[in-house]
Amino acid sequence: RPAINSKAETSSQSVQRELLKKMSQKNDFKESIHSNGSCRQLPQTIIIGVRKGGTRALLEMLSLHPDIAAAESEVHFFDWEDHYRNGLQWYINQMPFSYPHQITVEKTPAYFTSPKVPERVYNMNQSMRLLLILRDPSERVLSDYTQVFYNHMQKHKPYPSIEQFLIKDGELNVDYKAINRSLYYIHMQNWLKYFPLNHIHIVDGDKLIKDPFPEIEKIGSSAPFPSRTRQESCCSKLSRIIIMQPTLCISLLLE
Ligand SMILES: Nc1ncnc2c1ncn2[C@@H]1O[C@H](COP(=O)(O)OS(=O)(=O)O)[C@@H](OP(=O)(O)O)[C@H]1O
Q: Of 147, 200, 243, 245, which sits with the fewest C-beta atoms within 10 Å of its C-beta?
């Protein structure tokens, strides 16, 4: 099943409306509505990971589509207790304003490897569409390590070499977080307890970086970048595309 499908959208939105009604009875919930008719909506699609898989690039590419409204920053609603305790009203408040026909997408790469998250997402919306971008697991480990290494360097803090993390007692150290996050099949099993495989659209991160358009096209069954709005959308967001992926921009302009 495609991860983003504007027809299936209708049923997903009605599920969420029911959910919001229940919330309003309990917590005096008020939906934030803008005077221009847009409002904040719960996401219908979540990019759940994987960390360093290309989640930012994927979100930026999807947000080129005029029917997609993307949350700017990582929300960490389902994985951080402090946030989860705040409830759905708080979650909605983190979402961008969007029009009813638009699909709201958020990305928090830590969701994929957090054991509590699949059940929590399921409890919110059983028909949630999940996007998971994976890349070569070894390269992902290096990328993960490098990010933490540079964070330490910037703070002038020492950080062990990668060799010190990789091997423990002569064996691969699967307790090392960066390796553990690359054990995709383990985390996937958690998600499959709650969502069938056809709810989880897997994007090939290695292909996305080399040739993004075919990977993006696979996400939606209907044309993900309607021709009517393609150029307009491309021009207004040109600078972002150039930063993220010049070849996507060229594809969009040539289409
Ligand atoms: N199109 C495009 N533009 C820019 N970057 C791209 C793109 N596609 C994939 N990537 C690679 O994505 C890696 C960062 O992944 P994430 O965005 O998931 O990182 S994070 O988890 O949100 O920190 C990061 O990996 P590293 O280069 O290993 O750091 C990027 O190279």
A: 243
